[in-house]
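cache lookup: miss for this entity combination. No prior model stored, computing from scratch. Input as submitted by user K.M.:
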Amino acid sequence: MLNQFFSWLQDSLGKGAGDTAQSWSQALLGSLNFWSLLEGTHLLTLMLFAGTIFVVDLRLLGVTFRKTPVSVVSDKVLPLTVVGFLILVTTGLALFFAKPVYYYHNLWFRAKMIFLVLAMINIAVFHIKVQRNQSAWDNSPSPPGSAKISALLSLISWFLVIAMGRYIPYNFVDCGKPLPHFINVLEDCKTTAAGALDKDTMIKVGGTNDTDAVQ
Amino acid sequence: MTKLNFELFFPHLRPWVTNLVNVWPAYIVKPQYANWEVFHILSLTLLGGTAILMNLRLIGRGITGAPPSEVYRSLRRWQDVGVIGIIFTGVLMGMANAEKLYDSQAFVVKMCALLGGIILTYGATRPVAREDGAVPGSAKLWLIVGGLIWLAGLAIFATGVLINVGMYHVITAAALVVLIAARGRLRWIFLAGLVLIFALQQVITHVVITDPFDLKHLDPTNKAFTWAYVVWIGGTALTQAYVAARNKATPGLIALIAWAGILVWVTGAAAGRWIAYE
């Protein structure tokens, strides 16, 4: 169902009459510079977003700004992080709109979204539980274990979000290629135009592990 | 138009450059290119974040609860990691992708920004932060040297065919710095001006000029609007610097160091991204 919705978003929404008419999504993807500017802005904003959140996490780990209260660092830095996040979300949504079907069936994009959700849950847990007694350790050079775990989870989550995001344009595991069965399932390849090509089945039929020989 | 790439400066180097991909460790890096890109970007985020916070502190924004010298001491080693990280991963990726970079004008911009960024960061921003806002004579010298190298990179960026659009990243970042630094009425006037220029640009390039392929008219129009953004942002920044200097909050020279110290790394990152689009 989602596949059909994204196909409509990509191929039909905003499409006028005539053979050469483009949908809004196609027009965005085919734009001379706009898509590139969006993609570049998405990447560059990581300096503002991830660069500042890393500093807050490092303070919570007790490895930087040890003489400065946690609240002083977070209160002054996090507004900048939020600005960065808003730019990332805006450009990210626009980039998704340009190729929704591709992203929807992309393993790295799906993994990125999962780690993004985990990062958000970690932020919520930090605010609701860990920060409850912040006044007790706000001035401490080395915050308690719960704050450190939260910071570590944050660093790992954002690292994985960035890494998965960087892998998205690479076509190692695009649908239509001979892929292990579980990747075809994870990407829901059978509902794509390229289809699911099960590498394991091909090996059984062809009797070789050499993908080129099978093809 | 002549392309200002490394081939122009070192035309005899092509055979050596072409062979770099076959040299250790480039042939190991090549199949792992995506992984190295991840670490290049991570280094960039670390460098970018520390540069933003250290320079914003110089103009009285960001972590104002700690003196600039404390911000400097807390961030310098992480910034070093960022700088070493982008150079280390950059050299390896560059070897694995050498011919593309040799032909690229954006890569020349990136190298100017890298050199200018290192000079501005280590020669100007950090010494000034370490001294809590006092500007040593050497910092003035490094500001001029690093600033000129960066401006040369910007000039190459702005005149490069197919890459000059990447200047919008630098312009956007400059607008953000001004927005963060501005206070009160000036911030809203600045924002209203930006919105007005943007709206006018959209009306003229989409309503007045209806053909999206009419580059004969679109190109000069967009260039004129780019200048309008630059003048508006630069003018507001100068006004800010004047007001801050008059109120004895931030001397103009420190504001200049702070802006250059942030935007030079944005230039490097933007040029790096536009290598792919060139």
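stored under new cache key. Chain A touches chain B through 37 residues (CB under 8 Å).
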